[in-house]
Design goal:
With 246 residues, the protein is α/β, with parallel strands linked by helices. The protein has 8 helices and 7 strands. It has a 7-stranded parallel beta sheet with strand order 3-2-1-4-5-6-7, with helices on both faces. The longest helix has 29 residues. NADP nicotinamide-adenine-dinucleotide phosphate binds next to α1 and α6.
Length: 246
């Protein structure tokens, strides 16, 4: 029986690296993304070149109807299968000082970074319950652990993910489902450019004891471990991966 892993936001950056690593571990990948078909197709090719398999599953994680439609179709085509691994990775950064932030901007950050976790997990966890096995990894952020100017909205979503991880892990532990969060520091992806790094944030670079950005693959190795049998007894944890920055 194939082991399916759904990774949200897997067309690029950290999600892509996670998808490749889990495919190397033998998972069959359900590769979610929002709209960048070319990047998603490229990620799929990289997975296949690595000897794995992937199917594209575009939907917007902030739209529950779209999530349910995509997953209903998948479950209908795979009546005997379930999704054993869910990595809630899709996220956006939209930096703005609280003073200037419009409600629309706030809601968009919360919808994608936090509500997406709820919608996807709520839909997938039923199968894990029935099969009495599952792995959920939520990609939080160092911004959910320490204050960073311009990231009040983002930090709200990412710290809420940590609370959700801790509570959910206690609800599902008896079913052999583990729930953990990873809190990356600055990782070398497109999101860093979009964050419009200010002078204050540049100082944050200096605060990284390893004096470098992390690599998406370094996050992916940790996800791979948390989804392996070697991590059976690890649940409800928040693991930082930040070059010693916290
Ligand atoms: P990225 O390179 O910008 O990639 C974002 C991914 O998320 C893309 O696959 C994108 O799909 C997808 N996505 C965006 N909005 C979506 C939506 N509404 N529905 C579905 N998919 C959506 O980002 P990244 O740096 O890899 O970040 C990945 C995660 O790590 C995020 O949760 C981020 O907050 C977190 N994180 C990143 C860093 C960092 O320094 N990079 C640090 C801490 C935490 P399309 O290609 O279709 O747009």
């Amino acid at each position: 029986m194939k082991r399916y892993a759904l990774i949200t936001g897997a067309s690029r950056g950290i999600g892509r690296a996670i998808a490749i690593e889990l495919a190397k571990d033998g998972c069959s990948i359900l590769l979610n993304y929002k709209s960048n078909h070319a990047a998603a197709q490229e990620a799929k090719c990289l997975i296949e070149e690595a000897g794995g398999e992937a199917e594209l599953m575009p939907f917007d994680v902030s739209q529950p109807d779209a999530i349910n439609a995509a997953l209903d179709a998948w479950f209908a085509a795979h009546p005997d299968d379930y999704i054993d691994v869910l990595v809630n990775n899709a996220g956006i950064v939209d930096n703005e000082l609280m003073l200037w932030m419009e409600p629309k901007q706030w809601h968009s950050i919360i919808d994608i970074n936090l509500n997406g976790f709820f919608y996807c997990t709520r839909r997938v966890i039923e199968g894990m319950f029935e099969k009495r096995h599952g792995r959920i990894v939520n990609i939080s952020s160092i911004a959910g652990q320490k204050g960073i100017p311009g990231q009040t909205g983002y930090a709200t979503a990412k710290s809420a993910l940590i609370g959700a991880t801790r509570s959910l892990s206690t609800e599902v532990a008896s079913r052999n489902i583990t729930v953990n969060a990873i809190a990356p520091g600055l990782i070398e992806t497109a999101i860093i450019n979009k964050a419009k790094i200010s002078d204050i944030e540049k100082k944050f670079f200096d605060d990284i004891p390893m004096h470098r950005l992390g690599k998406p693959e370094e996050v992916a190795y940790l996800v791979s471990f948390l989804c392996s049998d070697r991590a059976n007894y690890i649940s409800g944890q928040v693991i930082g991966i930040n070059g010693g920055a916290l």
